[in-house]
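Form 7-S
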Amino acid sequence: MSLVSTAAADVSDPHDYALEWALVDVETSGLTPRQHRVLSVAVVTLGPDGRQTGEFSTLLDPGCDPGPVHVHGLTSERLRGQPTFGQVAGRIAELLRDRVLVAHNAQFDYDFLAHEFARAGVHLPVARRLCTLALNRRVDPPTPDLRLGTLAAHYGVKQTRAHDALDDTRVLAGILRATLKEAARLDLPLPLVPCPPRQDPRFAPRAPKTPCAYRNPGRPAAGGPLVQGMKISITGDTETARADLVARSVAAGLNVMGNVSRHTGVLVTNDTASGSVKARRAIAEGVPVVDERAFLRLLDDVRPGTPHENPTATEPTTAEPAATGTAGTGTRTAAIPHQATPASRPTPAAAASPAAPPSPADAPAPAAAPTPSDAPSPTTSLAAPARRPEVPAGVRPLTGRRVLVLGGTHPVSSRARGRIVELGGSAAVNLSASVTDVVLFPGAETDRRMARITSLLIPTHDADWLTAPGAPRTGSEAGSEAGSAHDSPAGTPADDARARSPRVLPRGGVIDLPGTGTEFCWDVGASWAQQTRCEIDVVAFVVDEDEQVSCDEDFVFYGAPENPNGSVRLLGDGPTEQTIGIDLGAMPPAARRVVVCAAIDGAPAFGEVGAVQVTVAAGTGAMPLAQVTVDAATTERTMVLAEIYRRGPLWRFRAVGQGYDHGLAALARTYGVDVAD
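Output:
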């Protein structure tokens, strides 16, 4: 198969895009890199001119169950006798060295390679990676989703055998060439991501924490026994090996925590005057303190607790319909997350009810995160915008349009984005092929994107346009006015894809996830404008009914990118976006909410960053089910962006947009994470 002929081989703007590339695809036995194994791997190398320079592929004997054979077709019999990863690691390393690793959902492939190289004891020579999924999110082609097969059809790249690593990699080469050409046309910087070294501790095998099966009954009565589900913390030296003490506690049904909070039942220490962080916090919170010998006696008589309920077994008191909107036709699969969903699983579009979504007034909003005494209260500067003409019921003149705001102060541009949503439009945070209009405020002329907007003939408007925008344009009128900016390379009409655009939620908006939500792996994504003075970190907290994490590892962030059982993972493939992947079907029994937040790493506050767009989608590459554009005010350094939470047997998504002046450490302590030890 000739790759050069499948798409334009010339890549514009060579100083940015003409690099040495190593395109990779892996088939795996599951979704969690530290638990599952690579079954097959393929690498195709391209030179700066886009021409193929090398190719390698092989099946692998993982020494374990191959997992979902119905997806990848790789049986144990077929893999038996194939080389192990360690036997081919050197050959793969040669192809990766001094090249940018490219994959569709690149963090998935990179993480699996990193773990396999670590097991083999071989250095992984990858310094940067490029995700074609993240790149296409920036380009935003008029397609119903961004899965590999969909993009192949859109860009005119022939796909022969889906879920075949070598064929998928060849297809990826054609998609990369075409997408780079589109990115150059839009003058988009590539979302290149630096890769951590192989020695990063996240790649070390570790046993997951055993989730506690019981609800937290609170603290023991004075002189009373321990009860299953109580949260226990240990600090200082112990006569019994710490691992044995923890194992005995877990076996008794207790929840051993790495921190102390107001929900802790007992702190175990042999030195109450140690002055450790845990001891000081226990004194401040009034947590009972016992020594090791007393605790061992209590372990001999732990009383039965109350098991966590199985919400899926209980019908809700009032069934609320899911919101309308198409979330694509797939979910993350156990072999290749960027491919189609197994046919046996329903799609969100099929599961969603045509009824209107419940409003925040209809649906009780989840309780706000607790604010401990040492954490500042939420800022109050997220005030309602100034009065403006009300939009009559049923009149949504910007429906189907995506509007970018340039220039102006943050409060001014924030109000403008709020007005766009009121008028039925979607507020863009970056220039992409889907932007239909641009609103200009003073200072817009200095924005580097202005020259490209002018060359693409995208309509621009002054602030008065948002008072009474013109009637929505037809597809032909939009294409005529904007010229080539909205023509797809494959000639697909943009109208068809835009008709499947996600539901736009206001701040505080709530939407039911289709079915029970557990049929799909959900991605909560956040994106923002390119920053030069700071970095933005997206994090997640998996919290219980007390709004506290069950263990420090339920705080998912760049240093610990997944929780113990892998049901919540951080996926980062670009400097302007990060995603929290959530497998609701695998959530620990104590989990009641996943809180997705963002934090500034650097001097600026969110007022200087501007708007953050948040989306929720049923799996990698799917069309978002819903989106919201949230704006902080001026001084916030952390934000609660959104949350997914249980309501009876259902799971719901809520757009939050609550800003705080304090940093990530204080926010983590709010949810019970010990960041000082």
